[in-house]
Amino acid sequence: MVPILLLGVPGAGKGTQAKRLVARYHIPHLSTGDMLREIETSGSAQGVQIGHDMHQGNLVPDTVVCQVVGKRLQRPDCRNGYILDGFPRTLPQAEWLIGFLHNGASFRPAGPIIVVYLTVGYNDLYRRLLGRRSCPECGRIYNDFTQPPRQAGVCDLDQTALVQRHDDDPAVIRERLSAYEERTLPLVQFFRSHGQLLEINGAEPVNRVSERMFAAIDPFIAVPACPPTGGGQ
Ligand code: AP5
Ligand code: MG
């Protein structure tokens, strides 16, 4: 089993490309953003605190995120690999992951961790984040400017009304970008020596980004012939 990590600035296309990786490699998509939003909606005391951090554009504390991820990675659907979208996001998280994979995890990697680093210029990001809409039912991601649904405000797949994320607000986006620069960008250097870093130009059209990503990953992961069995978050 080989984990795939998606690294990139908010709006780089991690969630969009993760769904395509699921379809190709038949491994589950683990988005820490989605997992934390789910805990937030549970209404627990921890959920309230997590929601507070996320709405401000701050990172959730490392101990909380590592605990959530550690529990999720022990589930049987991670046996053949998984896609980590938005984790790790700090050096302590990255160091925790390396230690966990080598000492604590039920499923150990058979080769180097594959890190897909999606690069996009900052000029594109505001348009991407302010225009993003997603389906609360199936999770499909749209964009009013670059990837609109067939009918405005409605999911193509299940006709559910699309929603906007609370943190896709100009002031919060600024905070998210500055958290990325300060705490996540150093991971690029970290994974040059602790993984197989694949740098992909995320500014190209979605299909082109996927093609380049698959071409870079295929030498490391066999494309399964059979359909997926279970998975999801
Ligand atoms: P998270 O949900 O992970 O948000 P993020 O990192 O800010 O990234 P986004 O989801 O905004 O962007 P994306 O790269 O997935 O882009 P997408 O594919 O949607 O985290 C949210 C919060 O949770 C954090 O701020 C933090 O508080 C907390 N958190 C999460 N993980 C944490 C961790 N590990 N540690 C601590 N705290 C954590 O695409 C964006 C838009 O662009 C869409 O509209 C899409 O349609 C469009 N688009 C995508 N690709 C293209 C393309 N190639 N061309 C044109 N448009 C495109
Ligand atoms: Mg995302």
Question: Would you kindly provide a written description of the structure presented here, covering whatever features stand out?
Answer:
The protein is α/β, with parallel strands linked by helices. It has a domain at 4-121 and 173-217: P-loop containing nucleotide triphosphate hydrolases (Rossmann fold, 3-Layer(aba) Sandwich). Helices cover 45% and strands 12% of the residues. The chain has nine helices and seven strands; from the N terminus they run βαβαααβαβαββααβα. Strands 2-3-1-4-7 form a five-stranded parallel sheet, sandwiched between helices. The chain has a two-stranded antiparallel ribbon with strand order 5-6. A hairpin with a 6-residue loop joins β5 and β6 (141-143). The relative contact order is 0.21. The model is unreliable at 229-233 (pLDDT under 50). Bound molecules: BIS(adenosine)-5'-pentaphosphate and magnesium ion (MG). Magnesium ion is lined by residues 14-15, 31, 33.
Short description:
By secondary structure, the protein is α/β, with parallel strands linked by helices. The protein has helices spanning 14-25, 32-42, 45-56, 62-73, 91-104, 122-130, 170-184, 186-194, 206-217; strands at 4-8, 29-31, 83-85, 114-119, 132-134, 141-143, 196-201.
Overall number of strands: 7
Calculate the terminal CA-CA distance, rounded to whole Å: 18 Å
Kindly identify the CATH topology of the domain at 4-121 and 173-217: Rossmann fold
From the alpha carbons, calculate the radius of gyration and give it in angstroms.
17 Å
Largest sheet, spatial ordering of strands? 2-3-1-4-7
